[in-house]
Amino acid sequence: MNEQLLLVLPHRQVIFTFFKILRVFFRHYRKLYGEISRLIYRIIQSFYNAAAGRKIQSAAVIAYASAGEFARFNPHIHAIVLEGGFDRQGKFVHIPSLDITKLSQYFRNSTIAFFLQRKLLNERLAKNMLDSTHSGFSVDLSVKISATSSKAREALSQYIARPPVSLKKLLVEDPLADSRSKTCERHAGSILYHTEYNPYFRTNSKLFSATDFLAEVLQHLPDPRMRLIRRYGLYSSRSRGTWLRKPHLARLAPKGWKEQHKPQSILHVGEAHQENPDQSVSAREPRAAWARLLAKVYEVDPMVCTRCGAPMHVLAVITDTQQVHRILRHLLKTGTAPPGLDPASVN
To answer: I want to staple 249 with a disulfide (CB 3.0 to 4.6 A). Which of 5, 193, 243, 305 is the partner?
Structure first.
């Protein structure tokens, strides 16, 4: 995120927490993750438009987190939000502060209306939640990041992508430990979770049996291919594809993005081309990224030979139509043509 995504501009961390009665829906209705993320970005964008007095385009990375301290199920949202946005003329409008009281109230009203519209709540319960003195909804805007603080952006990116449990906080008792040790037998095979003092639990440690700890951790396991971190506005994939055509964004893009989008030399057809062994790392990154994405989506590494398992390398990119047809005709003869290839198209 820090090297490829976040613009060199001020950001803030925003944490959204929900009323306890809604947590059961997040546990059993996993599609809520994406829908709530979109709702939260619309809330942020509408507040920015109102503060700027005109429509601006902002950006955010929104991450769903299900775990509280001691692996307790506590669904909430972490967001890295651009502190402002760009108007139609490409001018950045800095919005350094928001009315947290109004933002919290709007977040509560919008979330309750969202659950009511999907008939997950009835009108009576929704009205009680709206009239409640202690709503259970909250918004935290306390963490800000300056435009020049690269380390802070990286640290915050790591924080919102962290797993529900930190191994550094765990102490596992070996059930096969020597009986002469001082460990009590009834604690053998247990897990001690040690952290900073938590006012909710009124302690800084908690002891779990092995099965209880596994039950706590496994409730945070997401469904296969579920996206827990989403990008919106200028950080969405569609918008990032237009950064090269917008100088005001390309100028503020992170260093890694600029390295990958340097002007490339033009290679004409028929010219001999040999890959430079001293080629910069940034020029080789797109190829590595392509292989990583294929491996992630299809669970197959395209750069590993399927027969012997040896690593493969790209030797050349063939764009000559005659040479491509010649190769495809040979593959047809050997019976190894790509699936779906029409033989008549290469004759």
So the answer is: 243
